[in-house]
From TrEMBL:
Protein name: Mitochondrial ribosome-associated GTPase 2
HAMAP family documented for this protein: GTPase_Obg (MF_01454)
Subunit structure, as described in the record: Associates with the mitochondrial ribosome large subunit; the association occurs in a GTP-dependent manner.
Membrane topology (UniProt): Peripheral membrane protein
Length: 401
């Protein structure tokens, strides 16, 4: 099956044949711009439809504000309604008896995993459930408080202190964050043989109050790991429509970004880009390793190395070591090694040695010029198909974006 980008690459080949000359310099500049621009050259009348939307680029700091992966939230269930204390009153009817109704129960607060929600940014810092109504005369029971749903992204882990309470890993998963208080009893409830006119009624109970920590473990099919400046974000921009910030300084990326690679058969592979990892990250050097929770659930990994670095093959060992420090077995996941920046002459010279050390399957490409991206896209699809088959075999529903 051919990815849609390869389909565009086919257009590029056609266009190159038609032009009979070198491409204008602007057409080969900029990651991910190559194919759409070429397409727009030949279809001037339909450029509007072909050009990717030119969204205003946000700085990493602003992007981080939009994407929230951790939230502390205070949840208080609704208070139960009070029970009523009153007696039946009717003309010519003496000793009508107690008829105070019970109060309604307070509403629960429920966390629900929703596939449409991608970040915890919409979760507020506190929620109070709906209160139950008080009981009334004539044995009228108060209405219970409505349930309050908080929509959270799929992959949210609910913690209280250090204890994990729930893992909302499938769409529709629910967890009762705070229970509403029980409604009070009306005096009718206390009617007994030895007490025909009870005055007692009880107040409604307050709802449960908890401080929960919500942590999002991003669910993507593939996770990109690499040293800072290896070109992870550039690669994500080149293969998807995601727009993570790219700059020539380390730790440009401060939070996870997910890009979707679309294939012709409508398959979508989600690829997550996370901040760079350095040696000793498990001892909290650099940005530490906490952000690795975002690739913890990825089915397969892309180890991105900068081929122009002094010893690019050593980077893979360091990365695997750090992943093992975070979680045992994480580096054993199916993976592919991506050697980036092949457009640089010093990088190209190191390719034979890299292949000799790490095996011939390493993919050499350039996120900047788009060279050899097709091989990566095809390998991604292959890994994705294998992952889906393995999930189905285990009886689990594969992740869909
Ligand atoms: N020549 C060349 N430069 C590249 C290529 N890919 C990325 N770069 C440059 O490398 C620098 C770092 O790129 P990023 O994509 O920000 O790297 P990163 O791995 O996301 O870095 P962090 O977010 O800091 O971890 C930028 O100046 C890019 O322009 C490439 O294929 N060729
Ligand atoms: Mg980056």
């Amino acid at each position: 099956m051919v990815p849609s980008r390869l389909f565009l690459a086919g257009w590029q080949a056609v266009l190159e044949g038609v032009r009979h000359g070198p491409l204008p310099p602007r057409a080969v500049l900029g990651p991910g711009r190559l194919l759409p621009r070429l397409l727009s050259l030949s279809h001037a009348d339909c450029t509007k439809h072909q050009e990717p939307s030119r969204k205003k680029l946000l700085s990493e700091k602003k992007l981080k504000r939009h994407f929230v992966d951790c939230r502390r939230v205070l949840v208080c269930g609704g208070r139960g309604g009070d029970g009523a204390s009153c007696f039946h009153s009717e003309p010519r009817k003496e000793f009508g008896g107690p008829d105070g109704g019970d109060g309604g129960h307070g509403g629960d607060i429920i966390l629900r995993a929703d596939g449409q929600v991608k970040s915890l940014s919409s979760v507020l810092s506190q929620y109070r459930g709906f209160h139950g109504e008080d009981g009334g005369r004539k044995n009228c029971f108060g209405r219970s408080g409505a349930l309050l749903y908080i929509r959270v992204p799929v992959g949210t882990v609910v913690k209280e202190g250090n204890a994990v309470l729930a893992d909302l890993s499938c769409p529709g998963d629910e967890y009762i964050a705070a229970r509403g208080g029980a409604g009070g009893k009306g005096n009718r409830f206390f009617l007994a043989n030895d007490n025909r006119a009870p005055m007692t009624c009880t107040p409604g109970q307050p709802g449960q109050e908890r401080v929960l920590l919500l942590e999002l473990k991003t669910m993507a099919h593939a996770g990109m790991v690499g040293f800072p400046n290896a070109g992870k974000s550039s690669l994500l921009r080149a293969i998807s429509n995601a727009k993570p910030a790219v700059a020539a300084y380390p730790f440009t990326t401060l939070g996870p970004h997910v890009g979707i690679v679309h294939y012709e058969d409508h398959q979508q592979v989600a690829v997550a880009d996370v901040p760079g990892i350095i040696r000793g990250a498990h001892r909290n050097r650099g940005l530490g390793l906490a952000f690795l929770r975002h690739i913890e659930r990825c089915g397969f990994l892309l180890f991105v190395v900068d081929l122009s670095a002094p010893e690019p093959w050593a980077q893979v060992d360091h990365l695997k070591y750090e992943l093992e420090q975070y979680e045992e077995g994480l580096s054993e996941r199916p993976h592919v090694i991506v050697a980036n920046k092949i457009d640089l002459p010093e990088a190209r010279a190191k390719l034979p040695e890299l292949r000799a050390r790490l095996g011939p399957t390493a993919i050499a490409l350039s996120a900047a010029t788009g060279e050899n991206l097709e091989e990566l896209l095809l390998r991604l699809k292959e890994l994705h198909d294998r992952h889906v088959a393995a999930e189905l075999q285990r009886g689990r529903q594969p992740l869909r974006w």
